[in-house]
Amino acid sequence: MASPAASETPYAAAVRLGCSIEQLGYCARCQGYCHRYGQGGGPLCPPCWEIVEQARKRG
Ligand SMILES: [Zn+2]
What we know:
Order of helices and strands: HEEH
Oligomer: single chain
Helix content: 25-40%
Number of domains: 1
Bound molecules: zinc ion
């Protein structure tokens, strides 16, 4: 049962993602929190990166 990350606090999301609160942004795919800004950041959260990578491998 995957629950949406909407109820997660920014602090909890930052801890989970291993970044600071200022580096948090919203994932372009699922609108959950992701490490969006700064070093190591990107527009997608880790689960969405995984999905995109899988899709890319399948071509
Ligand atoms: Zn996502």
